[in-house]
């Protein structure tokens, strides 16, 4: 650790970054811990000695050395000013990687404030050089520092981390929640991963997961641990970024009680469990916080500990010697997501039980894959029966269930009704075959939208009527793709009407409420000439006419 010697009296703590969706351990952040004072004091002293960049670089290289060759990706912190001197930064950093056997792609360089007073050109040139050498980039301190949004937009880092001070406003401050939601939309459109720092409560974690913030770290998940980069983490199924949606039963619907023992349990304790309960297929070993550390398969364990000398060799020794890292999944994942993830497992573990965990990684039970397969198959049969034979879109049941879920999760959403104006006339003048062609074309376009827009769900109610559920930021895309499209039947223009109800948190109690409030908006949309789009909100009789040939109807009222 020759680079650490340049900054004497410094050790490192490591804090994990976890997926808010699955609890999977994604990376470790190395945090410098001076023996006296804080890292800010250390850097302030270096600045006074005009050695800020050199000391900051030594801290980053020391973090790589301290982490060693741990398998997890590593995050190291670098001041924005240091990033403007890439030659000074890269030589020691690359040397540390070579010494520990790591690759630059395993390391994310977190650029930290202050950004003020720096040459933007020098910063971008430095970031480009760092990225050219294979490192990933993150910006830290978003929301409470001097990080301009324009720098995020121009640099397009791999990750942006929300400041812990901002997170303190979650979930009680609606403005903070809205700001995080807006940054989440930025991430969706650009591929930037949003991370939250300083997660302290389960309510915060639940809101972050709902808002689509994929990564979190904080004391609720795991405090920073000094002196080691070794974290034994479950083998989590890979569900990051997969949108929630139709997928058969939820994992929570299939949970069974887990047979658990402390992670220190001896092999003989596990053997007795299996002997006394022939139907038990596995045992989960938990740490002191209730989080799964190891998983023992009945067949593999008994094969290992039985035999002429099995009892003498293994009885008093830790059962964890014969265990595997547990495969875990969040209780709110769908059955299809579970199957997609565990389907990648090969060999002897392919049929193992999967440990179900809550939002902070504590064991709540297990699922047996045979039951998941059966449940998903039954759901698929029901889904196939409900599909409209003309468009192959589902009926209303799927969408109405999703509306009720979003109401329960306190989410804002938009429910819309779409139909063809004068569809009976279309059938009577152009023929039912031409009418069917128009409905099929509408169905294909709506199906394409559901594939592109993660929060959009579509139901074919019947005839020319469709029910569409979207997020607020997706409904404009729906209108552009459907209302603005020049529909034709045998060379004659056809018009469509779209009525949208924006349901803020707490404004509707169920899908029935939404349906009742949407009905008059549907009538209003059909009263507008040409293809139309009108929008309303519960609790007000104001209607915004956003598409249509009647500009006088903007903000009109209806009874």
From TrEMBL:
Classification via SMART domains: EAL, GGDEF
Coiled coil residues, start to end: none
Domain of life the protein comes from: Bacteria
Record GO terms (molecular function): cyclic-guanylate-specific phosphodiesterase activity
Annotated ranges, domain GGDEF: 411-545
Domain EAL span(s) in chain numbering: 1-238
Name used for this protein in its record: GGDEF domain-containing protein
Organism for this UniProt entry: Actinophytocola xinjiangensis
């Amino acid at each position: 650790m020759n680079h650490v010697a340049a900054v004497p009296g410094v050790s490192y703590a490591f804090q994990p970054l976890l997926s808010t969706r699955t609890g999977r351990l994604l990376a470790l952040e190395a945090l410098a811990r001076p023996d006296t004072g804080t890292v800010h004091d250390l850097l302030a002293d270096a600045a006074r000695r005009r050695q800020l960049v050199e000391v900051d670089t030594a801290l980053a290289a020391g973090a790589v050395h301290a982490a060693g060759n741990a398998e997890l990706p590593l995050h190291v912190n670098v001041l924005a000013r240091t990033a403007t001197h890439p030659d000074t930064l890269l030589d020691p950093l690359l040397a540390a990687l070579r010494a520990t056997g790591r690759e630059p792609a395993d390391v994310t360089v977190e650029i930290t404030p202050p950004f003020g007073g720096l040459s933007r050109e020098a910063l971008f040139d430095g970031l480009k050089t760092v990225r050219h050498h294979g490192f990933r980039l993150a910006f830290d301190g978003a929301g409470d520092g001097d990080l301009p949004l324009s720098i995020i937009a121009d640099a397009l880092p791999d990750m942006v981390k929300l400041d812990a001070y901002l997170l303190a406003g979650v979930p009680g401050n609606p403005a903070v929640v809205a700001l995080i939601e807006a940054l989440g939309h930025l991430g969706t459109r650009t591929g930037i991963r949003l991370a939250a720092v300083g997660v302290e409560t389960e309510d915060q974690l639940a809101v972050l997961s709902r808002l689509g913030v994929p990564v979190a770290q904080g004391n609720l998940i795991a405090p920073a641990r000094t002196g080691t980069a070794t974290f034994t983490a479950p083998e989590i199924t890979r569900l990051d970024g997969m949108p929630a949606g139709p997928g058969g039963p939820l994992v929570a619907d299939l949970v069974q009680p887990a047979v658990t023992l402390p992670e220190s349990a001896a092999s003989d304790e596990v053997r007795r469990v299996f002997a006394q309960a022939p139907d038990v297929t596995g045992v989960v070993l938990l740490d002191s916080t209730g989080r799964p550390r190891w998983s023992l398969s009945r067949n593999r364990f008994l094969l290992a500990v039985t035999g002429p000398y099995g009892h003498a060799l293994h009885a008093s020794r830790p059962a964890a010697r014969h265990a595997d890292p547990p495969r875990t999944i969040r209780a709110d994942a769908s059955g299809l997501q579970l199957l997609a993830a565990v389907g990648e497992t090969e060999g002897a573990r392919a049929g193992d039980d999967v440990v179900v965990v809550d939002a902070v990684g504590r064991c709540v039970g297990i699922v047996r894959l045979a039951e998941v397969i059966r449940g998903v198959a039954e759901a698929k049969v029901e889904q196939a029966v409900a599909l409209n034979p003309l468009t192959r879109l589902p009926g209303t049941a799927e969408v109405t269930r999703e509306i009720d879920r979003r109401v329960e999760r306190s989410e804002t959403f938009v429910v819309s009704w779409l139909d063809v104006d004068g569809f009976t006339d279309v059938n009577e003048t152009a023929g039912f075959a031409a009418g069917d062609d128009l409905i099929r074309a509408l169905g294909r376009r709506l199906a394409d939208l559901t594939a592109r827009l993660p929060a959009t769900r579509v139901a074919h109610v019947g005839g020319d009527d469709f029910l569409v559920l979207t997020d607020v930021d997706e409904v404009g895309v729906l209108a552009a793709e459907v209302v603005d499209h020049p529909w034709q039947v045998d060379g004659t223009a056809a018009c469509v009407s779209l009525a949208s109800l924006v349901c803020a948190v707490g404004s509707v109690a169920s899908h029935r409420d939404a349906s009742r409030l949407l009905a008059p908006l549907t009538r209003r949309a059909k009263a507008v000439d040409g293809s139309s789009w009108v929008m309303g909100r519960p609790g007000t009789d104001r209607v915004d006419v956003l598409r249509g040939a009647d500009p006088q109807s903007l903000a009109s009222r209806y009874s």
